[in-house]
Write a structure and sequence with these properties.
The complex is a heterodimer of chains A (208) and B (471). Helices cover 32% and strands 14% of the residues of chain A. With 208 residues, chain A is an alpha/beta fold. In chain A, β4 (102-105), α4 and β5 (123-125) form a beta-alpha-beta unit. The two termini of chain A are 32 Å apart. Chain A has 8 helices and 8 strands. Chain B is an alpha/beta fold. Chain B contains 17 helices and 19 strands. Classes of the chains: A alpha/beta (208), B alpha/beta (471). Chains A and B meet through α2, α4, α6, α7 and α8 of A and β1, β2, α2, α3 and α5 of B. The structure holds iron/sulfur cluster. The site of iron/sulfur cluster has 13 residues of chain B, from α12.
């Protein structure tokens, strides 16, 4: 049995960035449910924001994920409650497979953030002011190099930078390359078995 | 020491502390459906792992299942492949599968409760955000992603942060024609769609105490639309009466011991909360969403809002209004609909359909010309009971299609979906852009009774007026 797998350290993510305006960007928009009808995650990258991109095209506009200057971007900067809604891991999978390697936002949908962590896609928190400034800086200079640095806990856009927050235990697991959740959980196998012998509903409802 | 149900149940399930407020949490019940599990089983196979606690895992099929012709193989090849994969996976890993073949299937959050699998004091997860539904029983229930489904299969545990707890009290009593759905829509409207981030929502107060389990499930179901991962009610006699005699509920002496333990889990009267809000239930009217998140709702006699005072707020409102094709200041009553959908894990339970059937029968009303109306029971059990009471005939006589159970148009992963530009009145839980299967389809979320009223009028309408309900 090979519960333990090695994962790459994730210390910094650098590249160009996409700034997304608006709050409450839900997972149905990130990846429409019709793409959940697949037995693998492999093809999801091309379908990220599919509905929004179609609607933008129909309206004669260009969605950020279709803009030529954002091709190959690896950082996404967003507002509040990014990834709210459904638990579909397909959402961070689609972003990751499209090329996004780190997301900075004011807040995240709870399940989205957890899902991103399990696939090695760090989600870091910005203050509302920092998110607004960073998005303005990216929009003004789409070719600027953007870095999410988990060592110094900062987001840098060209010469500007802002502090970011992330759960400290998770940050350490990213930086040390021990972020595979199943490996962490498997270390607790014996403790889980011990606990299961104390839980009333697994033991004829005898009080613990 | 005084504690909330959340902390009592959480503490009893901590396997290990992982530092900095992260915990390995043991999972009492893992529910599985086809849309978020195939990749998890594949990852398990890749690592050569078995399911650690097979008895604590139960699967069903709900998202992709057709609700008209359910004969195998399904007409849609992808759907057929997903069900086949689940059959194989549950078979080879030795997990219980509540199957359509044996007519045991239904929306995962409907059948968990119905079978008595859902119980107070359990930690319950499912690769589905509406797992919060099960919190109605005083369980700690929340949605997880596919990699976490893998984690639970392999270790019966997940990594979580401890949440803060917000107590939401609904005082007074609800006016006639106002339902549990209106309560949760009102709460989300008042608090906003992101106020719950980082919180578990505990519901209490006279209105919640008086609710049936079906109603409490409707309330807890939608906490995720308010940003919260977990919602719950404290277990009480209503909870125990519901569970008693259900197939998976404890029996005999075990039942008595179980009830004693369940009672001990309820939040202590002097428990401290991280936040507390109180709403007057008497203030709540039937609610209707007009926008693209669940905070964007108004009472049925209200108007589409705007312009907002600040530029950013107005940009968000304007975006939603444009998508929905409505104008600031327009009354929501009268917004035309093309489709009426009754069902989902929010409002697909027996009492939801009984209430609507009675209103239709009493008023002798029918679905308006040109409206496609679907009644999709949440489970085989709900469907069977409706048929037994002859209520399927009431729906059909009123112009509804009475279907086989499944998620159906809540998520449009089967054939049931909106066409481009159509508007639905829906008893489901999400009005997100594109949710019901077309990128330009529009969804108005409301109670089952309000959906029926909209179906009858062909436009959003006050159910109290349409069905002659008065106090
Ligand atoms: S009914 Fe809708 S919300 Fe509920 S589980 Fe099915 S798809 Fe999800």
């Amino acid at each position: 049995m090979t519960a333990m797998v090695a994962t790459q350290p994730l210390v910094t993510v650098s590249g160009t960035a996409i700034a997304m305006e608006g709050d409450d960007i839900d997972t149905d928009r990130i990846i429409p449910a019709r793409h959940l009808k697949s037995l693998t995650f492999d093809a999801l990258g091309t379908f990220v924001f599919e509905g929004d991109r179609q609607n933008a095209k129909a309206a004669g506009a260009v969605h950020p994920f279709d803009a030529p200057e954002h091709a190959g971007a690896s950082v996404l900067v967003a507002g509040e409650n990014f990834g709210c809604g459904s638990s579909r891991e397909h959402a961070p999978q689609a972003l990751h497979r499209w090329g996004i390697r780190a997301i900075a936002a004011v807040s995240f949908g709870e399940i989205f953030r957890g899902n991103s962590a399990t696939i090695g896609l760090p989600c870091v928190l910005l203050t509302p002011e920092a998110a607004a400034e960073a998005r303005a800086a990216i929009t003004a200079a789409p070719a600027a190099e953007v870095t999410v640095d988990l060592e110094t806990k900062r987001l840098r856009v060209a010469e500007h930078s802002w502090p970011v927050e992330i759960n400290e235990a998770l940050r350490r697991r990213f930086v040390s390359g021990t972020w595979d959740s199943l490996s962490t959980l498997a270390e607790g196998t014996q403790d889980a078995a011990d606990l299961s012998r104390r839980l009333p509903y697994l033991n004829g409802w005898q009080a613990a | 020491m005084a504690a909330t149900l959340y902390s009592k149940v959480f503490d009893q399930h901590v396997v290990r502390e992982l530092g900095e407020d992260q915990y390995q949490l043991f999972i009492g019940l893992h529910l599985i459906h086809e849309a978020t599990s195939a990749q998890a089983f594949a990852m398990l196979r890749e690592r050569g792992l078995k399911v650690a606690y097979p008895d604590r895992n139960v699967a069903t099929v709900d998202h992709i299942i057709p609700t008209d012709d359910t004969s195998r193989p399904f007409a849609d090849a992808q759907s057929e492949a997903m069900l086949s994969a689940l059959e194989q996976n549950t078979g080879s890993f030795g997990l219980r599968f509540l199957s359509p073949e044996r007519r045991e299937n239904g929306v995962v959050h409907v059948i968990g409760a119905e079978r008595g699998l859902t119980q107070p004091g359990l930690t319950i997860v499912c690769g589905d955000s509406h797992t919060a539904t099960h919190g109605a029983f005083g369980a700690l229930a929340f949605g997880i992603g596919t990699s976490q489904v893998r984690d639970v299969l392999a270790t019966q545990s997940v990594i979580v942060n401890r949440l803060k707890v917000r107590r939401i009290e609904i005082t007074g009593e609800l006016a006639p024609g106002v339902s549990a759905k209106d309560v949760i829509l009102y709460v989300i409207h008042r608090l906003g769609p992101k106020a719950g981030v980082g919180y578990a929502y505990e519901f209490g107060g006279p209105v919640v105490d008086a609710m049936s389990m079906d109603e409490r499930m409707t309330v807890c179901n939608m906490v995720v639309e308010g940003g919260a991962l977990v919602g719950y009610c404290n277990p009480d006699d209503t909870t125990f009466a519901y569970l008693h005699g259900r197939p998976s509920a404890p029996q005999g002496e075990e039942w008595d011991r179980a009830v004693a333990w369940w009672r001990s889990l309820a939040s202590d009267p002097d428990a401290e909360y991280d936040d507390r809000v109180v709403f007057d239930g008497g203030e709540i009217s039937p609610m209707v969403t007009w926008g693209v998140n669940l905070g964007q709702s108004v009472p049925v006699d209200g108007r589409v809002p705007g312009p907002a005072a600040d530029a950013a707020g107005e940009a968000a409102l304007a975006d939603a209004r444009t998508f929905m094709g409505v104008e600031a200041g327009q009354p929501v009553a009268g917004i035309g609909i093309d489709v009426a959908f009754l069902g989902s894990c929010t409002n697909g339970r027996l009492s939801d359909f009984v209430e609507v059937a009675e209103a239709l029968r009493r008023s002798g009303t029918r679905v308006a010309e040109g409206v496609r109306a679907l009644a999709v029971p949440g489970s085989q059990e709900v469907r069977a009971q409706l048929v037994e009471r002859g209520l399927d005939k009431v729906f059909e006589a009123a112009g509804f299609e009475f279907r086989q159970p499944g998620c159906s148009m809540c998520i449009a992963m089967n054939q049931d979906r909106l066409n481009d530009g159509e508007t639905a009145a829906s008893s489901s839980n999400r009005n997100f852009k594109g949710r019901q299967g077309s990128p330009t389809g529009r969804t108005l979320i409301m109670s089952p009774l309000s959906v029926a009223a909209a179906a009858v009028r062909g436009a959003v309408a006050d159910p109290r007026e349409v069905f002659g309900i008065s106090g």
